[in-house]
Design goal:
- The complex is a heterodimer of chains A (184) and B (100).
- Chain A is an alpha+beta fold.
- In chain A, strands 1-2-8-11-10-9 form a six-stranded antiparallel beta sheet.
- Chain A has two domains: 93 residues, 2-Layer Sandwich (Gyrase A, domain 2); 74 residues, 2-Layer Sandwich (Alpha-Beta Plaits), CATH 3.30.70.1520.
- In chain A, strand 9 and strand 10 form a beta hairpin.
- Chain A contains four helices and eleven strands.
- Chain A is elongated and about 60 Å long.
- Chain B is α+β, with helices and mostly antiparallel strands and 100 residues long.
- Chain B has a single domain, classed as Folate-binding superfamily (Folate-binding fold), CATH 3.30.2270.10.
- Chain B is globular.
- Classes of the chains: A alpha+beta (184), B alpha+beta (100).
- At the A-B interface, strand 9 of A face strand 2 of B.
Chain lengths: 184, 100
């Protein structure tokens, strides 16, 4: 059985020749659900929302990932969350939508290193190669729903709900050691 | 493991990302208080349990979160097609011709 990691506060959890796993400082996170013509909302938020599932855009201090046909997750600095929520609320009457602060919900883990892709395959049901650099997905990682961001060829971010994080971090920690011990 | 095509994501993905959600195209009565107990029972509980091509609902739970419909052969476990929720029921003839 995988040992549960105890470290949930920001810091480096594992650092081996294969990959490095770091719990990052919690960003401000908002969930956006909206339908129809989004132009009023995009103007208010100051960001062009990606239209395709898995697409990402970054503008005006906000990073957006499209999770579903009418669903986005927005990342911003924690101190900027209230301003983003207020910008959404200002166009609510003209364009009803849901924009909710979910900053307290998830742990973010950054993974990088030469064998980061191999580390991802430990828990990912789908082929990591199908997620392009600069894209992201909500998907399935060893029994949990995760939001996966691919920032570079060997650089990923995983957002997972707090209660699942100890299990996932334990798996990543073990995986890092295992991959580093392998002779290629 | 089954590979399922999500019509919203337009990707063919492993079964573990999806959950099964029963028979498709079952319409809830417009006015529930007007239906008889037998009709309500049939809406709630009675399903066809098809042997062969089955119209069923799936949800891309660990993904876009959307419900969609699929036609799956319950004998071979092969998917004939998947389509967005609300789209009309495709005829079996149109699907099997395409498959040949």
């Amino acid at each position: 059985m995988t040992q549960h990691a105890t470290l949930l506060t920001p810091g480096t959890l594992a650092d081996t020749a294969a990959a490095r796993v770091t719990v990052t400082a919690a960003p401000g996170r908002l969930s956006l659900r909206a339908r129809g013509d989004l132009s009023a909302l995009e103007t208010a938020l100051g960001i062009a929302l990606p239209g395709k599932i898995g697409g990402r855009t970054q503008e005006n201090g906000i990073e957006a990932l499209c999770l579903g046909p009418d669903e986005w997750v927005l990342l911003t600095a924690p101190e900027n969350v209230a301003a983003v929520a207020a910008a959404g609320a200002s166009v609510y009457d003209a364009h009803p939508h849901s924009l909710v602060d979910i900053s307290g919900r998830e742990t973010t883990v950054a993974i990088d290193g030469p064998r980061a892709v191999d580390l991802m395959t430990l828990g990912l049901a789908r082929d990591p190669a199908t997620i392009a650099v600069g894209a992201g997905r909500r998907t399935f990682f060893d029994g949990q729903t995760v939001v996966l961001w691919r920032d570079a060829e060997t650089k990923f971010r995983l957002d997972v709900w707090h209660s699942f994080a100890p299990h996932m971090l334990g798996l990543l920690q073990t995986g890092c050691r295992e991959l580093a011990a392998e002779t290629l | 493991m089954l590979l399922i095509h999500c019509p919203y994501c337009d990707e063919t993905l492993p079964e573990v990302e999806f959950t099964y959600a029963g028979e498709a195209h079952i319409v809830r009565p417009e006015n529930p208080s007007a239906v008889t107990d037998e009709e309500w029972e049939s809406f709630l509980f009675l399903r066809d349990n098809v042997k062969g091509n089955h119209y069923e609902r799936w949800r891309h739970f660990h993904g876009c979160g959307r419900y969609f419909n699929a036609v799956r052969n319950t004998i071979t476990d092969k998917f004939l097609t998947t389509y967005e929720a609300g789209a009309p029921r495709p005829s079996i003839e149109s699907l099997t011709e395409k498959g040949k």
